[in-house]
From TrEMBL:
<dbReference type="GO" id="GO:0006879">
    <property type="term" value="P:intracellular iron ion homeostasis"/>
</dbReference>
<dbReference type="InterPro" id="IPR001519">
    <property type="entry name" value="Ferritin"/>
</dbReference>
<comment type="function">
    <text>Iron-storage protein.</text>
</comment>
<keyword id="KW-0409">Iron storage</keyword>
<feature type="binding site">
    <location>
        <position position="50"/>
    </location>
    <ligand>
        <name>Fe cation</name>
    </ligand>
</feature>
<dbReference type="GO" id="GO:0004322">
    <property type="term" value="F:ferroxidase activity"/>
</dbReference>
<dbReference type="InterPro" id="IPR008331">
    <property type="entry name" value="Ferritin_DPS_dom"/>
</dbReference>
<feature type="binding site">
    <location>
        <position position="53"/>
    </location>
    <ligand>
        <name>Fe cation</name>
    </ligand>
</feature>
<dbReference type="GO" id="GO:0042802">
    <property type="term" value="F:identical protein binding"/>
</dbReference>
<dbReference type="InterPro" id="IPR041719">
    <property type="entry name" value="Ferritin_prok"/>
</dbReference>
<feature type="domain" description="Ferritin-like diiron">
    <location>
        <begin position="1"/>
        <end position="145"/>
    </location>
</feature>
<dbReference type="GO" id="GO:0008198">
    <property type="term" value="F:ferrous iron binding"/>
</dbReference>
<keyword id="KW-0560">Oxidoreductase</keyword>
<dbReference type="GO" id="GO:0006826">
    <property type="term" value="P:iron ion transport"/>
</dbReference>
<feature type="binding site">
    <location>
        <position position="94"/>
    </location>
    <ligand>
        <name>Fe cation</name>
    </ligand>
</feature>
<dbReference type="InterPro" id="IPR012347">
    <property type="entry name" value="Ferritin-like"/>
</dbReference>
<keyword id="KW-0408">Iron</keyword>
């Protein structure tokens, strides 16, 4: 059974993951509007990943006898100055989510809830991949700068992204 502190913190994380999905969907819409279908596809897949993260936590709370309470999701930003700014914001957001996951692990340890700690380790590992993936795009966007050819090449590459297989045991 989840204690009240962890239940509340996990509910907050569900909201953070849903906001992440909403933010990435806004970023995808921005790119679609600019005619960058590959960038938009990358963000659409990121949206799906964040929804999966929210669902994992949702299911876990229910499995542990807690109660999921969904709160309002903040409106995300919808306009940026450049493609690079979008991905820099995405990277900063992932770093914020990593900090929130780390705080959850700390709380699980303080509460001596070893099952929740174990559950959260998947998210700890996932955030390493998330930051690396977004950081790689930031690095490449910095290299190509305002090069139209570079942006089009990146659009093609980002459009080839496929959904990651879920490797967690159910």
């Amino acid at each position: 059974m989840l204690n009240e502190k962890l239940e509340e913190a996990l509910n907050e994380q569900i909201n953070a993951e849903l906001y992440s999905a909403y933010l990435y969907q806004a970023m995808g819409a921005y790119f679609a509007n600019k005619g960058l279908a590959g960038f938009a596809t990358w963000m659409d897949l990121q949206t799906d990943e964040e929804m999966t993260h929210a669902r994992k936590i949702y299911d876990y709370v229910n499995e542990r006898g807690g109660r999921v309470i969904l709160e309002a999701i903040d409106k995300p930003k919808s306009d940026w100055e450049s493609n690079l700014e979008v991905f820099e914001e995405a990277l900063a957001h992932e770093e914020k989510i990593t900090a929130k996951i780390n705080d959850l692990v700390t709380l699980a340890n303080e509460e001596q809830d070893y099952a929740t700690n174990s559950f959260l380790q998947w998210f700890v590992d996932e955030q390493v991949e998330e930051e690396d993936s977004v950081g790689d795009v930031v690095d490449k966007l910095r290299m190509v700068g305002e090069s139209t050819q570079g942006i089009f090449m990146m659009d093609e590459k980002l459009g080839s992204r496929t959904a990651a297989a879920d490797t967690t045991a159910e």
